[in-house]
Amino acid sequence: WQTKKGAERGGRRFNKSSLYQLLTNVTYIGMIRYKDETHDGEHPAIVADDLFTAVQRQLENNGKSGGRGVRNKHNALLRGLVRCGACDCAMSHSFSKKGTRLYRYYVCQHAQKNGWANCPSPSIPAGEIEQFIVDQIRRIGSDPALVDSTVEEIRHQRERSIKRLTSEKAGLTP
User: Fold this and answer.
1) Which of 16, 24, 23, 13 is nearest to 92 (CA)?
2) Rounded Cα gap, residues 11 and 138, in angstroms
3) CATH class of the region 16-69
4) Tens-digit pLDDT profile for residues 31-88
5) 3-state secondary structure the chain
C-alpha cells in the first residue's frame, strides 16, 4: 500500500514470522505494548482474552518441543540435520500428495521463503537422501579402523568439553 505522501509500505511476503507477530500482538486484546511493558489501551479488544491466552499457551508448548511432536508425523529421518548444498541454508522435510501417493522431500528454506528461483537446488527426494545417509553410516560401521578413529575422536571431544565446562564452572564460583 502507499501512504498519502507516496511512500511504499508493506509488500513483504507473508511468512511464519509474520504469522507469529499477528498471533502475539496484544493490540488485538485491547492492550498496547511499549518497550517491555504492556498497558491497557484506549481501543476495544477484537479477540477474546481466553482465545488469545489459549493461542499463547499453544505457541509456548510448540516452542518447548519445537513442535516436534506435531511436525514429524511422516518420520523424517534427517529432520533438522540437512543443509542445502547450493546455499548452505537449512532444509526441512516437506511432502506433496498425488492421489493416494505421498511424495516426501527435503526443501531448502531459502528457496521456500524467497521463491524457488532463488536457489539452484530447491528440493531433493527424501527417500534418496535418507537411503544415502543410512548406507554411509553402515559403511562407516563396517570399517573397524574407522569405528576406532571415530570413537577416539569422540573421546577427545568429550575431554575437551569437560575441561571447558570445568573452567567455566570455576569462573562461576567465588
Assistant:
1) 16
2) 49
3) alpha beta
4) 999 988 999 999 999 999 999 999 999 888 877 655 555 556 667 888 888 899 889 9
5) CECCCCCECCCCCCCHHHHHHHHCCHHHHCEEEECCEEEECCCCCCCCHHHHHHHHHHHHHHHHHCCHHHHCCCCCCCCCCCECCCCCCEEEEEEEEECCEEEEEEEEHHHHHHCHHHCCCCEEEHHHHHHHHHHHHHHHHCCHHHHHHHHHHHHHHHHHHHHHHHHHHHHHCC
Residues 56/38, Cβ–Cβ less than 8 Å: no
Full-model pTM: 0.47
Evaluated on CA atoms 68, 69, 74, 78, the torsion sign reads positive
